[in-house]
Design goal:
heterodimer; A: alpha+beta; five-stranded mixed β-barrel; 1 helix; 5 strands; 24% helix; globular; B: alpha/beta; seven-stranded mixed beta sheet; 10 helices; 10 strands
């Protein structure tokens, strides 16, 4: 199972973005898309792969909550 | 960016062995198997465009290729991707987000270990195929494995090296240097070592019902 996880861009550190996941944990990641601080994004295997809207961020969290029982 | 025919075979095997949910991923699994069986490499953009359902996974693979300075997605890149630090960290994050560590019986540790491509020693026994994974001084036993039909050789009764991902044997008798390099790389992954230190092994007939799930998934994919 390789889950795509929605995150918020908190800051930038060199080539890396500092991201916060829905649980409040932070990590650094490289991006293959253009982003700015405050944006929302999807990450997969440590890479930022897509910029998303706040609405899509919330939908992604709802999806994760829905599969938590299935997993 | 181009994906080689060999990489498509490996991607199909990783996809088939990764437990997924819903019809969406099954369609992509079938697509990958059919592409691999066609035996031709293709443009990676075309590969993504023709995916029956959008998948974020392949975008990150392209990002990884860029980071590694690779102009194509080949077998080595796929093995590096699934055996390395990024994949390990992503496993831990999934455990946190989905609260998998609350399921008991060291589910979180087993998820981390199973999720990684592991260089193992395989043996066929009267109880089925078993694998031993060694990291540092610790060894664990992986039981009730399924050999993917794409895995190259038939397993005999003597020990041999191979790669395992979840309950699936991905390859038998890979290049010795490559096998050892992956093992050495994983020796440095503290998160993996820590997870291994807390389990004796994984019996895939019991853990997440993965043996049965893998058999079913392979059947759905036409094997």
């Amino acid at each position: 199972m390789c889950l795509t996880i929605p995150k918020k861009v908190i800051s930038k550190d060199g080539d890396f973005f500092v991201l916060e996941n829905p649980k409040g944990n932070r990590q650094k990641a490289k991006s293959i898309v253009d982003l700015k601080i405050g944006d929302y994004c999807l990450t997969q295997n440590g890479f930022i792969i897509q910029k998303i809207s706040q609405k899509e961020y919330k939908q992604a969290i709802d999806y994760i909550n829905s599969i938590r029982k299935e997993a | 960016m181009y994906i080689t025919k060999e990489a498509l075979r490996y991607l199909a095997m990783f996809n088939n062995s990764c437990k997924v949910f819903g019809e969406k991923k099954i369609k992509n699994s079938r697509y990958l198997v059919n592409l691999a069986l066609a035996g031709k490499g293709i443009s990676f953009d075309l590969f993504q465009k023709k995916l029956p359902q959008e998948s974020q996974m392949y975008k990150s693979l392209k990002g990884f290729a860029g980071l590694m300075g690779s102009e194509e997605i080949n077998r080595k890149l796929i093995l590096d991707y699934f055996s390395g630090l990024n994949h390990l960290i992503a496993s831990q994050e999934q455990i946190d987000i989905l609260k998998l560590n609350t399921k008991g019986d060291n589910f979180g540790e087993k998820f981390i270990v199973g999720h990684m491509l592991l260089p193992v020693t395989l043996r066929s026994t009267k109880y089925g195929i078993v694998a031993v994974y060694k990291i540092g001084k610790k060894e664990i036993l992986l039981e009730n494995l399924i050999a993917h039909p794409f895995a190259k050789e038939t397993l005999d009764s003597s020990s041999q090296r191979g790669y395992v991902h979840f309950a699936t044997i991905i390859e038998l008798n890979p290049d010795t240097d490559e096998w050892e390099q992956i093992a050495k790389k994983q020796e440095k992954l503290e998160l993996l070592k820590d997870a291994i230190s807390r389990i004796k092994g994984i019996n895939y007939a019991e853990f997440w019902n993965l043996s049965e799930w893998t058999k079913e998934n392979l059947k759905i994919c036409g094997f």
